[in-house]
Task: structure prediction
Amino acid sequence: MYDNNKRVAIVTGGGSGIGLAIAQKFVDNGIETIVIGRNEKKLSDAKQLLGERCHPINHDVSDLASLPSLVDNIIRDFGQIDILVNNAGINMKKDFTETTDEDFQQVINTNLTAVFSLSRAVVKHMIPQGKGSIINISSMAAQYGMPRVISYSASKAAIDGITRAMAVELSPKGIRINAIAPGFIATAMTAVALDSDPERKNKALGRTPMGHLGQPSDIGDAALFLCSDAAKYITGVILPVDGGNSIGF
Ligand code: NAI
Result:
């Protein structure tokens, strides 16, 4: 039986960075938050930090065949899923000609196919509930061309596409689908991408009107808004949270 008095969220890649900040906002607002990740240490640190509303599950979302039973087990244990944040993602910075088919496929599998497969498994439970909110995490790499991230760009551009396609098909069933396009946010992923490449960092900040990196909590605030009733008439948007980076000169 669906319980109107509680909300249950899944945040993939919730053990670190942006996902952890989203999970933090959710637990702070009384949402039972299942944090899925691959790293036992990060998950136990997250549990320590977030407390009793945080429910870590060690699971690799790129293992597609396992996702339906993962979701069935969550439904068995929590009764419902109100919110899914598809945040887990990997980046791969390589020259176009150095990127192998396997590299490309690996990024697509984690950043795109897993998002599709997990969403499909979750939506099958959201449809009978008649409501739900899914948030996909996109990127500036889907807004404009970035060099040396060909597979990542492909995956994130496709995230924008499936966000719109899911929104038109699922919104009539009460399920809102939106994406957040983070600009340059201070996390481990950005450190790897930018700290070793000062020219790229200067370029990123140079076209960010606000002039500084964002914080993971900025994305957490946007996610909390998009899954709340305050956003009940919002579906199919790709919301940049980027200090103006996407419209910067
Ligand atoms: P991060 O590397 O700190 O966090 C990613 C998390 O996803 C990690 O905890 C990792 O263990 C988990 N993960 C990766 N593959 C997984 C898998 N197969 N199964 C389960 N968990 C898996 O990176 P960050 O920066 O927090 O990124 C989160 C999302 O935000 C990603 O989708 C990324 O593409 C996106 N993003 C980040 C930006 C930034 O500036 N940091 C900018 C734009 C988008």
